[in-house]
Amino acid sequence: MKKEKTLKKSKASLIWLLIVALIAVSLLLFCQFYFGDAISSKTTFYPNTHINGVDVSGLTKAEANNIILNNLTDKKQQINITLKSEDKKWTIDGNELGFIGNIEPTLDKVIAYGHEGNIFTQKKIASKIKKEGLYINLPYEDIYGGMEAKLEGIISEVECLPQNSKICFNPNSEIMFTESEATLGKIVDRQALKESICNTITKTSSSEIEIPIVDILPQEELESLVDKITLRSSFSTSYATSSNDRKSNVKLALSKFNGLIVEPGEEVSFNNITGERTIENGYKNAKIIVGGKYVNGIGGGVCQASTTLYNAIIRSDIEVLQVNHHTLPASYVPLSFDAMVSEGYADLKFKNNLSTPIFIKTICDNSTATVEIYGEPFEDGVSIQTKAELVKVLPHGGDDIITDYKGEYEDKVLYRGEYYRLKYPQEGYESKGYVEYVKNGEVVSKKEIRHDKYLPQNGIIVEGCSSMEDGMNLPNNTVRYISPQKVNSETEKNAKAKWKID
């Protein structure tokens, strides 16, 4: 009885083992049938996978790599792509390209695609690829050398920045200010262009491609730019009594500024704008001040041009970065309002400290030089005027008598006791310059901009050096010795009248 029970128990266990085995085999067959490619090896490509037009279904990476590289090498010789934009064309010739063939990283990604996640996700991806296909185009920069650089060169010829409306300045026209139209900018849609090139290389190797362009709008146009421009300041000096050569130098120097537009924050150098004072550049010989004396020099009169410009600039409330005074006061402007320039060591420099451009116009006739500054209007109708102040008169030291041992003035004097006046003594001045801000006819503020000293100059009398022979008489001496100056209230009164200082 016991043996019979044991036999029955063993028989039941065997039946259960058979059932479990049958279920396992059925499950394996079911998975193989149902999931198919989803449980296939991860070392081969899914069915219906294509890379650059090559069917790599079921191939290993090494097999696919060899086939694709051979295909790409053959296609390189056939590449002849024309890129077009408006009326311009460029050609990409495969014979001009190098060959890189760095495709393994992309193949690794393609072969691993769809094997992530659980078996049901893999089955879904595998089924979709088998039905719809997986089509991959390798990046051409991984295949052909020099393509990227060639494309960037072409793109640089196509792209352009948008142009906002701007003011056109024609100082010699009746209508000086006009407004240009804004224009669109252009940038190339690089991604779309690369996709088009990849598709062409994959399918036909030869094609004409219109370069995809994206328009860039300019910034919002400013309202009535021209209507906002006004005359900020004007200043004139007279050169009516100057020589023709000196007048020519003034006109030439100021002509360099006629029509000049100075942008916000831009700095301007008078010497840089006017250039070297040479005969070749059109400048002529005229009187200049050197060491307190008037002598001939190339470009004489240019300082009157810089002075006229300087006074227009300060009346326009533009920032002056550098200005210098003469050794002798300039007769055409008040004290502390001259602007001496000299190549190499003295310049007039200014900076547009406004938020909008300024525009410079110069006008020169045969007697007057004028500079006009245009730009945004002053706030609340404010205007600027200038004022000179005489601090004190600096007395001269009278005459110095020199003996003409070198015979430089032998046509004037020969003998001792014979005199020729070479130069009169001149008093000097300490002065200040101010700008005054005026509103409704009243000065609302005042700012000191200059404090100068024009040093006094002694007179020079030349005496001959030869001794007279017996019986000779000196001619009448008309030169009168001038003693050192004594300054008093009358001296300062006369100085203020001379320089028109209140």
In a nutshell, what does this entry contain?
The chain has 502 residues and is α+β, with helices and mostly antiparallel strands. 28% of the residues lie in helices and 29% in strands. The protein has helices at 2-35, 61-76, 104-112, 119-132, 147-158, 190-203, 244-255, 270-274, 302-315, 489-498; strands at 49-51, 54-55, 80-85, 88-93, 98-99, 134-136, 144-145, 167-169, 177-179, 185-188, 206-210, 213-216, 230-238, 260-262, 267-269, 285-290, 293-298, 319-322, 349-351, 358-364, 368-375, 383-394, 399-403, 419-423, 428-439, 442-454, 459-463.
Explain this structure to me?
The protein has helices spanning 2-35, 61-76, 104-112, 119-132, 147-158, 190-203, 244-255, 270-274, 302-315, 489-498, and strands spanning 49-51, 54-55, 80-85, 88-93, 98-99, 134-136, 144-145, 167-169, 177-179, 185-188, 206-210, 213-216, 230-238, 260-262, 267-269, 285-290, 293-298, 319-322, 349-351, 358-364, 368-375, 383-394, 399-403, 419-423, 428-439, 442-454, 459-463. It has 502 residues and is of the alpha+beta class. A 4-stranded antiparallel beta sheet has the order 13-21-20-14. The termini are far apart.
